[in-house]
Structure formats: C-alpha cells, structure tokens
Amino acid sequence: MTTTENQANPIGFGRMLRKEDARFLRGKGNYVDDLNLPGMLHGAVLRSPYAHARIKSIDISAAQAHPKVKAVITGEILETLNLAWIPSLSHDVVAVLATDKVRFQGQEVAFVVAEDRYSARDALELIEVDYEVLPPVVDAKKALDKDAPVIRDDIAGKVDNFIFDWESGDKAATDEVFANAAIVVNQDMLYPRVHPAPMETCGAVAYMDPIDQKLTIYSTTQAPHAHRTLYALVAGLPEHKLRVVSPDIGGGFGNKVGIYPGYVLAIVGSILTKRPVKWMEDRSENLMSTSFARDYHMKGSIAASADGKILGLRVDVLADHGAFNNTAQPTKFPAGFFHVFTGSYDLMAAHCSVRGVYTNKAPGGVAYACSFRVTEAVYLVERMVDRLAQELKMDPAELRMKNLLRPEQFPYTSPTGWEYDSGEYPRALRLAMDIAGYEELRKEQAQKRAKGELMGIGISFFTETVGAGPKRHMDILGLGMADGCEVRVHPTGKAVVRLSVQSQGQGHETTFAQIVSEVTGIPPEDIDVVHGDTDNTPFGLGTYGSRSTPVSGAAAAIAARRVVDKARIVASAMLECAPEDLEWEKGRFNIKGDKSVGKTMAEIALGAHGTVELPEGVEGHLNAECVYDPPNLTYPFGAYICVVDVDPATAKVSVRRFIAVDDCGPRINPMIVEGQVHGGLADGVGMALMEVIAFDEDGNNLGASFMDYLIPTSLECPSWETGATVTPSPHHPLGLKGVGESATVGSPPAVVNAVIDALAPYGVKHADMPLTPAQVWQAMQGAPYRTDLAIQ
Ligand code: MCN
Ligand code: CUN
C-alpha cells in the first residue's frame, strides 16, 4: 500500500485537504434548517414542564383558533393513527406524544403546525394541559426501592422500575480467582449523564407530495436507510414511496441515531396539512429531550497477585436508562458492548452484571462517541488499574506494561468472548511514554510535590470495539448490520461512489474517494461521493459505532477491486491479449514486461462504454457493487497520557499536556484522523472536568442550556500531541480500523487518573467526574496533606 503525502494531487491514501470544506468554509453547507420548500409550514413541540405527571386533559381549542395555526396534534389524535407509541430500538415502546402521563421534563405533549415558526411557538402557549403532578424518581438507586413510584404503568402488570438484568463472563471462575488473589481492590464509580450536544440540533422537513403520494423526509439522521425502513414498518407507509435524505449534518456524535418524536410529528403534520412541515429543536430542547449518554453506576473490583499481575475483574452496574428504554445499539445487546470491559489486559477471569432501571429522565444512554458503552467499559478498567497501582504503590505505566496483551496473543479471545483482531499494545504505550518524556515528568512531579505543588500524570490504555456487525450477531430490530457500496466509473474515467453510511463531519466525501482512489488509481478529486439519500444510495445501517471505515470502507474497497477486475477484462479485449497477460500498475494495465503498451483507467472506462467486443458473458460499462457483512469487529487501540496541574488554593485543574498515540491500522487520511482524535480529546477533557446533566429532586433538568451544560473550549484544551502506530486489521480488505470515537472513549480516564494522581498527597483515591473545582476541593478535604502516599 502506498501513501502519498502530497497535498495537491494525491492518488490514494495520504494527507489531503477535505473536499467538503470547499462549501463548509464558505458557509455554503446545506443543513436541514437551510431547506425552505414552497408553501412550507413550521411545527413546534409543547413539552412537559414536569418530570412525572398524569395528564388529566388537554384543551387545544384556543391554539386551533390562532389565525396562523394549521393543525394541532395531540397523543389522542396520534392514537387514531396508531402512532402514539412507537417501538424503541431496545424492546420497549416510546411515546411520540404523551397520552396518559408525562415521564420526564421536556417530554413531547402536543405539536402545533403554523404558517411560521413564531406563530407555532406562540400557539403552544394557548394549549391548556391539566396535569396532576406525581412524585418523580431521578436517582437510579431509589428507582428500585419497593415504594418508588412506578414510572411505566403503561406496561401491563408493571409494578416496579426494573428494565433488565444481564450478565456476561464466568461468575464462578471469577469468584475463584478473587478468592485466591493476594490483593483485591474495590471502587465504586459513576460515569455521569452527559450529552453529545452537537452544534446543529435535531430537526426534519417532511413533505408528502399529494400527486404521487411520495413522502420525502429531510432529517438530521446518522442512518437514513434504517430510518426509512423503520418508518415503513411502524407507520405502514409503502417503503418505495419513502425517501429519507440527510443533507449536511452539523455533528451527530450519536445524538442523531434514533428516531425522535419530532421527526414523526413533522411527517404526520405534512400528511394532515398536505404541505411541507419543518421542525427544528432549539438548544434547550436538544439538551433536555434527546439521547443523553452514560449514567452508569459501577461497582468495580480488581484482583491481582502481590507483584501486580492482574488476575480478575468484576463489575456490577446500575444503568439509568431514563423513562423509556430507547438506547440505540444492536438489539441483542442491552448493555451495548460494555462487556468488553476487560480492556487491554491479559487476565484470567471476568464477570459483569448490568441492571437497567427506569427513571424520570429523558431516554437514551448510548450516544456521544461511545462505541456502544465501550466508553464506560474503558473508564471502569482504566480507573481500576490505577486504583490497583495506588494500592500496590506501583507506577501505573509499569503496572500496565506488565499486564498488557502481548502481540503474540493476537487474535485474542477475551474472558467475555470478544475476539480482538490485532494489536501491538506495549509498543503504543512505549511510544506515548517517549513522546511525553514520562520518566522526566515523574522526576518533575517529585520535585513539585516536595514544594507542595500538585502535578498529576494520568495514563489510559484503551481497546476500542468498532465496525458492527457481523449481521448474524448484530442487528437493529432485525435489520442485519451490513452496508452497501456502489462504484461507477463514467465513460471518461471519472467516478461516483454511493454509500449507505452518512457523514456528520467526519470527512467521508474525502476519505471514501481516497479509498476508491487507492484501489483504482483514479485521482480522488475525480471521484464524487454520494451519501445520505435513500433514493440514490444502496441500503445499509448507517454511521455510528465508528463503523463507516470498517464496514462501508470495506464495501468500497471490494467494489473498487471488482471494478479493477472488470477493467482487466476490458483492457485485454482492447489490447487483444489474455487478461493474465496484463499487469496492474495503480491506475493502468500494462502488457506484462512492457510498460509502454497498456491502457489507463480512463481509456479502459471509455472502452467499456464503447464498441470494443467484450468476451462472452461480460457486460459493458465499468461499475460494481458490494454488500459487506464484516466477519468481525475491528479493535483499534491507543495509549494516552495526560499531565495536569491542580491549583491547591482553588482546586482548579489545568490540562497542561495531552499525548495521544492511536492505532487504527493504516490511515486513509492522517489529517482527518488527527482531526477526529483532536475532537475526541476535547470531548474527554469536557467530560472529565465539566460536563454533566444533573437533575434536582423534582426532576428538573439542570443542564438545559450552554450556560449550565459546560462544554470545553480551546481555553480548557492544551495543544494536543499525537502519535501513531500502525497495526492492520487482518480481516479488513485494506487493514483499516475505525477511529471516530477512539479519543472520546480513551481520554476521560487519562484526565481523571492524572487528577487523582495529582491529589495523591491528600490521600485521595477516587472522585467522580466531572472534576470541577468544587468536586476536587471536596476530595481534597478528605485528608490532610501527606507526601508518603505519592507514587514516586
Ligand atoms: N479514517 C481514516 N483512516 C482510518 C480510520 C478512519 O482516515 N484508519 C477516517 C474515515 O475515513 C472517516 C473518519 O476517519 O473520514 C472517521 O472514520 P470512522 O472511524 O470509520 O468513523 P465514522 O466515519 O463511522 O464516524 C462515526 C464516528 C462516531 S460513531 C461518532 S459518535 C463521531 C465520530 O465519528 N461523531 C462525529 N466523529 C465525529 N466527527 C465529527 N466531525 N462529527 C461527528 O458527529
Ligand atoms: Cu455511541 S455515539 Mo457514535 O456511535 O454515533
């Protein structure tokens, strides 16, 4: 595989400016809210002010009388269409509009369609809802109390807030390992509720064409094909009369995977009014009612020998899923991929159990660059390893080096049954330590500690689990997780690639052109990438779980290879030789041994569309497709080191340095990969230090604006120092692994480990995220200043 580092005109892999930036940098992107169809109406959602209340009555008469209002929709009206409740992605139902009760603050209660956005919002004020307020439960632990109010009394026979019990690993073997271990460390920790908070909120424009009865839904979705099929299945709409378009998307981060009530309401609004209807959330609606992430209460235990060989890992989780179990993950995985929690270590036995509970909070759980809960899994194991290092008084880098899986152990089957494809872990950690100057940093820390200054060094090593399917294991409501790609070379040698996945900022228009370029030799600027439109792209499950490169990227590579295979036959017909007499040189076929006689891809493309006679059974034109069902996930990994300073007077944490070594196999475009990593690292600093969606006892969401939900800016982030190792995936046709969520998954524990390391002189063993000054200050009050606890 060649890599071209030429910015101007590369063929194949290498640094190349993003094609899509030509419009983004000029402010010419085309987002859902930019769409203004003739005659378009505007919808607005009335939301519940209460976390838990019975709806006694809804009076819409005044709103209906508003001169600019065209329709007012309630749950009662949706019931007549059989759309008040829709199936969730995880064996539950979700209310589109509340009928019996509201179950979280911000839940959808009614929908107004009006001539303009302002009138729609004004008319919301005219709707009279008579609520009987009920006691809410926002604490996952209290939700399981016997006398806790039952949130889901819509489910026949439901008498508690319990959703599911699920476990993985060998409990007996783990118990035995723990019983015989020299040292066992226990630690409770919370991964708090956070929100992906994409720059663009969610929205849709729906239009039912009254002539041909075709419904087009422009929406902020990461998975247009899956949405179309689910609309067809749930609403009974004919799928060939449905078109889902996701135009430019201003960040998804998992927030735009599921189907939100607003999308359905825009569709119903258009069907009722026979006009296009736009619905766009505002920021508070996005933060209050769309998919959140985490909310995992974890009880971890780690067992080791006295000299620091990790033997076993155990975790018991209480998973707060909010009012509806609506997490967007492969349907057979109620806890997502959490059971990959043994991480990057070679240990004997492991067991995890997860209990899901309902609370009066917005539903969700899997969003925010999470790889289906690998985020929580990595946090758990990386904090546990650091806790063990603390107890053993061992350097956390040394402890990791001692326990990391070794290259010769791959392919490796984890104690909970995951088959890691490839890895060279110690090399990545060593590289990160070299970039950081780890040993020097420890010396500096010791000197600072002697002066009472608080400096911390935190390490995290993660293994990511990305690229879902294979479809025999993974599906979304029965739709197998495979993806399609079509490559068509035009007569003049330019090409179009049609993808089932959808970019929300990841740069697919560039990297997928580079994949096809790498295989065919056609320059990437001559390859157009089409995505995000079900009428113009092959079926597939969409972009999340960093699956585009592992799955759709493989489909693109294979389709492109099929094009090259066909090009050989066409070239042989043109050159009047046997196909075997030709030799491939990226972008052209030559007669073996004579480079002066050959045909370029452009010549071959013209030939394929021309008059040359092709062998019996070979059709004209130059195109191919592939539906790729991955044989396994890919397992990218990385070693992260964070250096922080904590102000002893104010307890404020400053991230001084952050070193990230990522291994995602070969990099299609190193610049884009670095961008993905930079963004994820900022996410990690945000979650570790400032982001949290908290609730008061009445169930009021305390993070419903960017004044309250803090996200990091460049001021909180250092200049990232990145490095790379390259361990190809043995089963991907180009060796590629995904990377889109790696840094978000891997970085929070590095920051937290650094802060706890800085606080070691205070005897602090753990503090939950976000490590705000208040939180750090509290932790520091636990014990007087001591230097003997410091890891040397
Ligand atoms: N890439 C590469 N070489 C590799 C692997 C990836 O050049 N070896 C490139 C890819 O071609 C792609 C990008 O890196 O352009 C990310 O690829 P991949 O890891 O396959 O992830 P996806 O494209 O499937 O993106 C999804 C992932 C997820 S799940 C979240 S959440 C997230 C993330 O991407 N959301 C994002 N990164 C985001 N970046 C932006 N700007 N916006 C989001 O919403
Ligand atoms: Cu979990 S967030 Mo991404 O998989 O869309």
From TrEMBL:
Location of the Aldehyde oxidase/xanthine dehydrogenase a/b hammerhead domain: 26-135
- Write down the EC number: 1.2.99.2
User: What cofactor is needed?
Assistant: Mo-molybdopterin cytosine dinucleotide
InterPro entries to which the protein is assigned, alphabetical? Ald_Oxase/Xan_DH_a/b, Ald_Oxase/Xan_DH_a/b_sf, Ald_Oxase/xanthine_DH-like, AldOxase/xan_DH_MoCoBD1, AldOxase/xan_DH_MoCoBD2, AldOxase/xan_DH_Mopterin-bd_sf, CO_Mo_DH_lsu
Q: Which UniProt keywords apply?
A: Molybdenum, Oxidoreductase
A GO molecular function held by the record: iron ion binding
Q: Which Gene3D superfamilies match?
A: Aldehyde oxidase/xanthine dehydrogenase, a/b hammerhead (3.90.1170.50), Aldehyde oxidase/xanthine dehydrogenase, molybdopterin binding domain (3.30.365.10)
* PANTHER family cross-referenced by the UniProt entry: ALDEHYDE OXIDASE 1-RELATED, XANTHINE DEHYDROGENASE
Name of the protein:
Carbon monoxide dehydrogenase large chain
Q: Please give the organism.
A: Acidithrix ferrooxidans
